[in-house]
Amino acid sequence: MEQSLERAEQRTAKAVAGLQLVSPLSILARGYGLVEKDDKIMRSVNDLHVDDMVAIRLADGTVNAQIKQLEKQMTDKPTFEENLTKLEQIVTQLEKGDVPLEEALAQFETGIQLSQTLKKHFSQQNKV
């Protein structure tokens, strides 16, 4: 009887710990926020429009805000071939030398990022 009570206590403690890990309050305490509009949680920028009023729920309170700008994140990762083509285009443009300095710097940085992405692809292929 005592063993089954002890097991039940252990199972309960484990379940409570698991519940605390997935608690929305624990998630908010880690720095995340919930965006609500009309008392509904917003899960996508597609659900919002410029000038919408929203409530942002944080761990210690709520912030009311007005949407001024929306930026959609690219969800489709470019393929290896698309990255390589883009890198080749950047090199061609920079070789011509008719790109304004600020744009050339931005393209160069993009080219560096693309080359690192392509190198990662090769190192992953070599591991296979």
Rg, Cα atoms, Å: 25 Å
Number of beta strands: 4
Indicate the percent of residues in helices: 40-55%
| Biggest beta sheet summary | 4 strands, antiparallel
**Number of H/I helices:** 4
Q: How are the strands of the biggest sheet laid out side by side?
A: 2-1-3-4
Return the average pLDDT rounded to an integer. Answer: 88
Which word captures the global form? Answer: flat
Strand coverage percent: 5-15%
Domain count: 3
Structural class: alpha+beta
- Runs in which pLDDT lies below 50 for 5 or more consecutive residues are none
Enzyme class: hydrolase
Protein name: Exodeoxyribonuclease VII small subunit
Family: Belongs to the XseB family.
GO biological process, one term: DNA catabolic process
Kindly describe this structure:
Its EC number is 3.1.11.6. It is an enzyme of class 3 (hydrolase). Belongs to the XseB family. The protein has helices at 2-21, 24-29, 80-96, 101-127; strands at 34-37, 40-41, 53-58, 61-66. It is an alpha+beta fold. The protein folds into 3 domains: 1-31; 33-71, no CATH class; 80-127, no CATH class. It has a 4-stranded antiparallel sheet, with no helix packed on it. Helix 3 (80-96) packs antiparallel against helix 4. The radius of gyration is 25 Å and the shape is flat. The termini are far apart.
